[in-house]
């Protein structure tokens, strides 16, 4: 498959005038005749657009809605865990919220929010007119809303339809639980996941084709920006990982509905599901974290007054992470009784994969060292990403060691490690990108004081939420438990640490409400941007291609009367 994909990419790169659509906007290097047509207005524009910038905004809005859904679910769960006994959520309701939270945040927030940045920015960064396949780009997005409705089908349909309730399989959908749970909500969720995987795969093909064939004449592999490099590697990972997940989901649906025995105890066995799922599931972690690493590597130097330290090594480490991520899946299965020789090999690769991440981390710190730092909101979120990622990475190295993992497996230590990377890392990079490019996609400035309040509440809230979970894991608190009313054990310690984590979630909620308020009000009525170099990057030789496009295309369209302002 790898040879086939490389061959197809090479063929496309050598074929001229291979596109069949007409360029409507942009300033790329193609020889097509340029035409001009006004976009329709109102809702029709958003339903029919194939403009990569519009589709990027659609991805972003969808991801924010999904983030709110997953956030509400986790708030309810955390308040249930404030005290040991069952309070206001039943066990089944807790399990349903647990499932919808995990799947929503990974598949409906994580991947789409990164696609939002990729769609909007990559054509601008590489000098392309649009994505290679604009219509496929639009189709890939419009598969997501029905996928979300299917994934949430058990929650949305439960109050109105008989015999349907939320799936209670957790996001890993382990067999035989996911086979024996005879609830149509599980089938809806599996179909929705399959649909979201198709959308992600279509998007990945589009990004690979765009970066290979649509680059401007002055954009070579040596000068390709670091964000585009990370998206290219991410897209290659998606091509190999998501089809496998789709195949496993189809087999699970057949087991549930047609009596096949792919994952039953008397058939292929429940461990087969774990192997197939985690062969997708661990590359998925890097599918989610590589573009945020690219965002930080791209944005951080802009506010340090210097270029990224060790650019080539950051690219090499990105390629290494893309390859090594497919060789560590069984570290999720150390406690299953697999062959010790296999466990040892997976432990070695799991520890080794920390090296490319450490390369990036030291390069980020070297970039800041003795730099002319400007503590803008994008810079602060980049620094927060680095700090949280270090904690998430170190806890991951502990779990990669077999003896330690056998103690910490399925405890809250795993939850803390995962969320330090996902919430403490990915979300921080996303916020850095939103604030950095806010003048680009809105033409306005955000409220800088509210942005810094957002940062500090999010940073403090993240660590108050997840560091107690590290301690809960060492104390032996299992994850996925709705109650912990023990007759013997450190129940008082569990209660205290859960209450601290709930306090952290409250701080996070306040911070995100400030973020949404700032985003919406500034987009509608913030001061207009009047300078094509809003971050004063030309002085350090880092004036980027996308703001050159902004200066050329967006500024002349601004209405008179704008108020010149600076923001951070």
From TrEMBL:
<keyword id="KW-0349">Heme</keyword>
<keyword id="KW-0479">Metal-binding</keyword>
<feature type="transmembrane region" description="Helical">
    <location>
        <begin position="232"/>
        <end position="254"/>
    </location>
</feature>
<dbReference type="GO" id="GO:0009060">
    <property type="term" value="P:aerobic respiration"/>
</dbReference>
<dbReference type="InterPro" id="IPR023615">
    <property type="entry name" value="Cyt_c_Oxase_su1_BS"/>
</dbReference>
<feature type="transmembrane region" description="Helical">
    <location>
        <begin position="285"/>
        <end position="301"/>
    </location>
</feature>
<comment type="similarity">
    <text>Belongs to the heme-copper respiratory oxidase family.</text>
</comment>
<feature type="transmembrane region" description="Helical">
    <location>
        <begin position="313"/>
        <end position="332"/>
    </location>
</feature>
<dbReference type="GO" id="GO:0004129">
    <property type="term" value="F:cytochrome-c oxidase activity"/>
</dbReference>
<dbReference type="GO" id="GO:0022904">
    <property type="term" value="P:respiratory electron transport chain"/>
</dbReference>
<feature type="transmembrane region" description="Helical">
    <location>
        <begin position="138"/>
        <end position="161"/>
    </location>
</feature>
<feature type="domain" description="Cytochrome oxidase subunit I profile">
    <location>
        <begin position="46"/>
        <end position="540"/>
    </location>
</feature>
<feature type="transmembrane region" description="Helical">
    <location>
        <begin position="344"/>
        <end position="365"/>
    </location>
</feature>
<dbReference type="InterPro" id="IPR023616">
    <property type="entry name" value="Cyt_c_oxase-like_su1_dom"/>
</dbReference>
<feature type="transmembrane region" description="Helical">
    <location>
        <begin position="418"/>
        <end position="441"/>
    </location>
</feature>
<protein>
    <submittedName>
        <fullName>Cytochrome c oxidase subunit I</fullName>
    </submittedName>
</protein>
<feature type="transmembrane region" description="Helical">
    <location>
        <begin position="188"/>
        <end position="212"/>
    </location>
</feature>
<keyword id="KW-0679">Respiratory chain</keyword>
<feature type="transmembrane region" description="Helical">
    <location>
        <begin position="377"/>
        <end position="398"/>
    </location>
</feature>
<dbReference type="Pfam" id="PF00115">
    <property type="entry name" value="COX1"/>
</dbReference>
<feature type="transmembrane region" description="Helical">
    <location>
        <begin position="453"/>
        <end position="476"/>
    </location>
</feature>
<keyword id="KW-0472">Membrane</keyword>
<dbReference type="GO" id="GO:0020037">
    <property type="term" value="F:heme binding"/>
</dbReference>
<keyword id="KW-0249">Electron transport</keyword>
<dbReference type="GO" id="GO:0016020">
    <property type="term" value="C:membrane"/>
</dbReference>
<keyword id="KW-0812">Transmembrane</keyword>
<feature type="transmembrane region" description="Helical">
    <location>
        <begin position="55"/>
        <end position="76"/>
    </location>
</feature>
<feature type="transmembrane region" description="Helical">
    <location>
        <begin position="496"/>
        <end position="520"/>
    </location>
</feature>
<keyword id="KW-0408">Iron</keyword>
<dbReference type="InterPro" id="IPR000883">
    <property type="entry name" value="Cyt_C_Oxase_1"/>
</dbReference>
<feature type="transmembrane region" description="Helical">
    <location>
        <begin position="97"/>
        <end position="118"/>
    </location>
</feature>
<dbReference type="InterPro" id="IPR036927">
    <property type="entry name" value="Cyt_c_oxase-like_su1_sf"/>
</dbReference>
<dbReference type="GO" id="GO:0015990">
    <property type="term" value="P:electron transport coupled proton transport"/>
</dbReference>
<keyword id="KW-1133">Transmembrane helix</keyword>
<keyword id="KW-0813">Transport</keyword>
């Amino acid at each position: 498959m790898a040879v086939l994909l490389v061959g197809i990419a090479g063929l496309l790169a050598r074929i001229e005038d291979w596109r069949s659509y007409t360029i409507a906007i942009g300033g790329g290097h193609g020889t097509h005749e340029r035409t001009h047509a006004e976009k329709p207005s109102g809702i029709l524009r958003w339903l029919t657009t194939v403009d990569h910038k519009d589709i990027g905004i659609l991805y972003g809005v969808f991801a924010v809605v999904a983030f709110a859904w997953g956030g509400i679910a986790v708030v309810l769960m955390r308040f249930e865990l404030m005290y040991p006994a069952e309070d206001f959520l039943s066990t089944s309701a807790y399990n349903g919220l647990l499932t919808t939270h995990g799947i929503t945040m990974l598949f409906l927030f994580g991947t789409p929010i990164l696609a939002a940045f990729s769609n909007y920015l990559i054509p601008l960064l590489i000098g392309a007119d649009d994505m290679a396949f604009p219509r496929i780009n639009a189709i890939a997005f419009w598969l997501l809303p029905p996928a979300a409705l299917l994934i949430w089908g058990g929650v949305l349909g439960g109050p109105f339809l008989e015999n349907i309730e939320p799936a209670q399989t957790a996001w890993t959908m382990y067999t035989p639980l996911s086979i024996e749970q005879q609830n149509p909500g599980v089938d809806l969720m599996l179909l929705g996941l399959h649909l979201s995987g198709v959308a992600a795969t279509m998007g990945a093909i589009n990004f690979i084709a765009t970066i290979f064939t649509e680059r401007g004449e002055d954009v070579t592999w040596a000068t390709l920006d670091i964000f585009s490099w990370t998206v290219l590697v991410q897209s290659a990972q998606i091509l190999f990982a998501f089809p496998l997940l789709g195949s496993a989901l189809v087999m699970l649906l057949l087991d549930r509905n047609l009596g096949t025995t792919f994952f039953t105890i008397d058939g292929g066995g429940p461990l087969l599901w774990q192997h197939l799922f985690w062969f997708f599931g661990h590359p998925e972690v890097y599918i989610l974290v590589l573009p945020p690493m690219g965002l930080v590597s791209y944005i951080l130097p802009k506010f340090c007054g210097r270029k990224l330290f060790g650019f080539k090594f950051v690219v090499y480490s990105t390629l290494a992470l893309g390859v090594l991520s497919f060789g560590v899946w069984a570290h999720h299965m150390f406690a299953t009784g697999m062959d010790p020789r296999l466990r040892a090999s997976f432990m070695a690769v799991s520890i080794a994969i920390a090296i490319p991440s450490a390369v990036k981390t030291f390069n980020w710190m070297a970039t800041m060292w003795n730099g002319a730092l400007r503590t803008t909101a994008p810079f602060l979120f980049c620094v927060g990403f680095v700090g949280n990622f270090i904690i998430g990475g170190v806890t991951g190295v502990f779990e990669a060691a077999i003896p330690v993992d056998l103690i910490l497996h399925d405890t809250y230590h795993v939850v803390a490690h995962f969320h330090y990377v996902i919430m403490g890392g990915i979300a921080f990079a996303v916020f850095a990108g939103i604030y950095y490019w806010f003048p680009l996609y809105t033409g306005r400035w955000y409220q800088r004081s509210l942005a810094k309040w957002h940062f500090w509440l999010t940073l403090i809230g993240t660590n108050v939420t997840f560091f107690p979970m590290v301690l809960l894991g060492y104390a032996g608190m299992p994850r996925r438990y709705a109650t912990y009313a023990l007759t013997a054990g450190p129940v008082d310690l569990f209660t205290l640490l859960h209450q601290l984590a709930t306090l952290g979630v409250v701080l996070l909620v306040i911070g995100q409400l400030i973020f949404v308020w700032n985003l919406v009000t500034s987009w509608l009525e913030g001061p207009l941007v009047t300078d094509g170099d809003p971050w004063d990057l030309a002085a350090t030789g880092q004036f980027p291609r996308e703001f050159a496009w902004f200066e050329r295309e967006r500024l002349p369209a601004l209405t008179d009367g704008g108020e010149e302002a600076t923001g951070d």
